[in-house]
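stage 2 :: seqdesign
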């Protein structure tokens, strides 16, 4: 390890907080979910909260790992801990738990019965071109992120494929993951016209859900707000605030999918804590 980086980090422990840093209230809420070993363990050289701040900074600013600020833990530490969180599944579990809490607070059933499915195509960097695909419709070479969110905009499933893989081909994978996470309760998946056809409908039915295709009006002029479709489209627009998620920078597709889960975990945690503060 570069000890000069280590010294710079320790000299900057009293730094001014970044806008992306986790607040005391949110950290108190999420810390039990992301602590994989005791905070006082002898092999831990950096506070877990500082590691989390490094990850949040990377997501928000889109900085490469090697260009993380010097007043957060070194990038190998942040990268390694992020992979440990994703591998252990603690972030996905936190998204699931907070989603249940938010639904109960808003007097809804703990598990969603309807979801909205959509995809977003991210242009790949030259380094990631090996697993990229060409989306002729959107004229982009990159990766496609397929999302399934509940009617409140909470994430249920995410799948990453090359951009040349058609949306219809991912129905089975999304339907399976949607049923695994909430406990086999999803009955309807609202989709756009790109999912029209007997094959995607049959694949969804095989996993206990039905596709409801929302079509554009025959005659339209300008932007048309489609029923329920705006929920997932708003989430796709919100993710552009996380500059790391506007392009495909990651070496493996699983990391790109995992960072989307991390972004949703941050969003839900802030929303839950804000709601609790408002009600107190």
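stage 2 :: out
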């Amino acid at each position: 390890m570069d000890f000069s980086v280590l010294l710079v980090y320790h000299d900057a422990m009293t730094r001014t907080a970044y806008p992306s840093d986790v607040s005391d209230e949110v950290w108190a809420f999420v810390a039990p979910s992301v602590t994989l070993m005791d905070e006082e363990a002898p092999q831990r050289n950096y506070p877990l909260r500082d590691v989390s701040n490094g990850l949040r900074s990377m997501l928000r600013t889109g900085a490469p790992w090697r260009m993380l600020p010097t007043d957060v833990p070194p990038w190998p530490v942040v990268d390694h801990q992020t992979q440990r969180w994703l591998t252990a599944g603690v972030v996905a579990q936190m998204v699931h738990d907070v989603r249940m809490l938010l639904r109960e607070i808003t007097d809804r059933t703990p598990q969603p019965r309807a979801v909205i499915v959509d995809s977003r195509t991210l242009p790949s960097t030259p380094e990631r071109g090996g697993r990229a695909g060409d989306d002729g419709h959107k004229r982009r070479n990159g990766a496609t992120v397929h999302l399934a969110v509940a009617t409140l905009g909470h994430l249920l499933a995410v799948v990453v494929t090359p951009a040349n893989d058609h949306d219809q081909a991912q129905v089975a994978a999304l339907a399976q993951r949607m049923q695994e996470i909430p406990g086999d309760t999803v009955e309807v998946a609202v989709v756009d016209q790109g999912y029209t056809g007997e094959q995607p409908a049959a694949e969804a039915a095989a996993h206990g859900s039905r596709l409801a295709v929302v079509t554009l009006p025959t005659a339209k002029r300008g932007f048309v707000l489609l029923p329920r479709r705006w929920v997932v489209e708003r989430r796709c627009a919100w993710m552009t605030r996380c500059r790391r998620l506007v392009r495909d920078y990651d070496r493996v597709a699983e990391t790109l999918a995992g960072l989307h889960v991390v972004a949703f975990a941050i969003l839900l945690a802030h929303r839950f804590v804000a709601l609790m503060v408002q009600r107190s």
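stage 3 :: structure notes
- The chain has two domains: 3-88, 115-249.
- The chain is about 45% helix and 15% strand.
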